[in-house]
Amino acid sequence: MTSIQNNLDEVRATLPAGVKLVAVSKFHPLEKLKEAYLAGLRDFGESNVKELQTKQPQMPSDVCWHFIGHLQTNKVKYIAPYIDLIHSVDSFKLMKEINHRASINNRIIKCLLQLHMAEEEQKHGFIPDKCIEMLTDGEWRKLDNIKICGIMTMATNTSDSTIIHRDFAGAKQLFDYIKTNFFPNDSDFSIRSYGMSGDYHIAISEGSNMVRVGTRIFGEREY
Ligand SMILES: *Cc1c(COP(=O)(O)O)cnc(C)c1O
Fold it and tell me: pTM, whole model, 2 decimals?
């Protein structure tokens, strides 16, 4: 058994029913993705458009591609034909562009609202108040070619698990608030994407139902 298959089995064994695994394959070579594919994995996460553009055509067509990194509006057009879920939507401007490109491709693209929960300065993600403001404004309801399916976040980069618990608990609270106030009858609004190799157990204990795991599956990245 290969080590990737081994790692995958180990990670899968610890995931409760209902928690989806996205394997973060950024910076890893195609051979490793193919190995994971053969081990049954279909959901891959990438954070760079150029890298994704190289890998996507070389993988089987039933792969679900997740975009998890910062997405510049001028690059949306490259991934719009095939991207399955964009986790990193952090502005209305980006939502409009994704909608525009999705419409050109005759698709509806699923999106998550990336929320900035961490203590430290992070460059990306909606400040919670701004996200609520954007949703209250309501213009997003006219964007027929995107589907907002939930939220994504990252915890503070710390070894203090109390803080990590707090960040994820805050994300869950926000999810519930947004669900109640803006998506009460929308069963598609259901995804809580948080938890990576180092903190996915905590994330699940705080209500995550989609974890994005890289290192734990593929080993250390070579930058
Ligand atoms: C790289 C990355 C991950 C995976 O991180 P690991 O620690 O390798 O599991 C998850 N989410 C995002 C947004 C990332 O950029």
Answer: 0.97
